[in-house]
Amino acid sequence: MKRIIPFILALCLLAGCGSSGNGNTETPAPPDAPAVEAPAQPTEPEPKINWGGDVVSTIRADQLGYRPGDTKKAAIITDDTTFEISRAADGVVVLGAALSEPMRANAADETVRVADFSALAEPGEYFLVTSEGRSYPFVISDSPYGDLRAAVLEMFHYQKCGVEIEAGIWSHPECHAELATIFDTEDTKDVSGGWHDAGDYGRYVVPAAKAIADLLLAYENAPNPDPEALPTAWHKIEWMLKMQDEATGGVYHKVTCRSFPALDIMPQGERNPLVLSPISPTATADFAASMALAARFYPEQREALLAAAISAWEWCEANPDAPGFRNPPRISTGEYGDSSSKDERFWAACELFAATGDEKYHDYIKSDTLYTGFGWQAVGSYGLVAYLFGAGDKADGELYAQMKDKLLADCEGIMGQYAQNPYGDSMGGSFPWGSSMNVANNAVTLILGSRLADKPEYVEAALDHMHYLLGYNSLAQSFITGYGAVSPQNPHHRPSVAAGAAVPGMVVGGPESGLSDPALKAACEGFPAAKRYIDDKESYASNEITIYWNSPVYFALALLDL
Ligand SMILES: [Zn+2]
Fold it and tell me: Known catalytic residue: 174?
C-alpha cells in the first residue's frame, strides 16, 4: 500500500509550523548561571518528496488554478484510493487525502474518483500526484486566472469590423465598410461596424443581442466591474442601430456575403458584395430588448436607444404572426433560425417595462407564459432578469414571485445534473453545438439564482463550471485559447488560421454530441458525448469561436470576481 503522509504532518506543512524562529527574543543566560541540562529537542520530520513521474491526462483539474478559500476538486481515472498534492518547486508533499468512492461519469462513459483538496489554502504552485503520475501544475492564488477575464473581453476587440485594428499578427485594415444591398432590391444601406460574429465575418443581430446583454449585465452585476465593458459593447450597439429599417422599425436579420470565404482569408480579403437578409421577428424583438437594456448604461444615448427599441416593438406589435427567419435563396451563411419569437417578445416587453414603466408592456407580459434560456435561440431568462432585478417598485408581487420560482426551478434542474457528475459541468448526456456556452450560461443562471435565494452551493457549482472550461473535464482540455496547459491551438477562426496562431482568450464550442461537421464525425464517431471534440480548424461544430460563447464566460468570470 502506498505510504501516505500523516495527517498531522500535512496540517503542519499547510500551516507552516515547525519552522525555527530566529531566537532574537531569547535572553542569553548569564555566564555564572549554573549549567542546566538542555531539554530534548523534538525531531524535525523529513519532508516527503513526491515528484509523481510524468504528467498524465487521467488527472483532470483546472489547469490554471483555484482561489484559497474556494472548493478545489479534480477527477481522476485510477485504482488508487488516495492522492497527494506536491509543491511544484521542490516536490514537497503538502497534502495527502483519500479519494472518493468510484463515480460514474455517464456522458464520458468512464469511472473516476474525485480528489477534494479544498483544505489546501496556502498560495503557491502545485501538482496532484497519484501512483500513475501527476497533473499539470496549477496555482492556488487570490488571482488564479490572472488576465484571463481581460483577455476574454479583449476578444471583442479582435472581432471588430469596419475599422482598422492593431492586434499584432492579427492586425487588419478597415473591412466590410462598403454599402450592403437589401435582399431582393436595388437599395443599399450603410451597416458598417460591429463585431464579426464568429470564425466567419458575418454580422447577425440575434446572437449580437445576447452578447451585448451579457457584457452589460456583467458590468451591472459584477462586484468589481470592468469600465472597458461599456465602450466594448458600444461598438456593437452602434452597429445594431444601423441594422434597423427607419421606415418600419423592423430589424434586418443579418449582413453577410452570400457564402463563407475560404478559411485562410483575413477580413479585408473578403470582397464579395454584402447582402442584408430580410427583417425577422426574432432580430427585431431581440433588438428591442437589447436596446432598451442598453438605454440605462449610456445616459447620453438613452433617448435614441429607447426610441429605437420602442419603434422595433411597434413592428413586433404590427407583425404578431411574422414567420421565423429562414435563409433566403442563394444565401448560405449562418441562419440563426428560430420558429418562435415568443420568448424574444417576452424579453423585449420585460426590458421595455423596466425601462419605461409603461403598463402596456406589463399587460403583454401578463398575457403570455414565462420563458427561460440565456442562449441566442431561447432568451427568456434575460426577460426574467430584467423584471426581477430591474422593475423595482413597478413589479407586480405575484408575477415577481412566479418569475423568481421560474428562474430557481432552472437552477434546481442545473444542480440536479451537476450533482450526478464527477466533472464540473451540468450538461447531462447532451452536448449541443457550442456546449461551452451552455456551461457558462448555466453558471450565470446559478449565480443570479443565488442572489434570489440563500443558496451558496449555487455559487460553488458555478465555480466548478469555470473549472470545467479550464481542464476539469473528461478530456483534460482547456476550451479557451491561450489559457491552460492544453488549450485549443487550431480554432475554426479565419484570422487565426490566416496568421498561423490562435488569437488568445477565445472560447471554443467544445464537445458536440451531434458530430455536425465531417472532421468531427470522422474523428469522434462512436465516442461518448463528452469526448466529441477535436482541436482541428476544420471542426466548426466543436472548435469554432463566437462572440456569444465568449460573452457568457466573461459574464460568469465577472460575477464570480475571477
Ligand atoms: Zn469586417
Answer: no
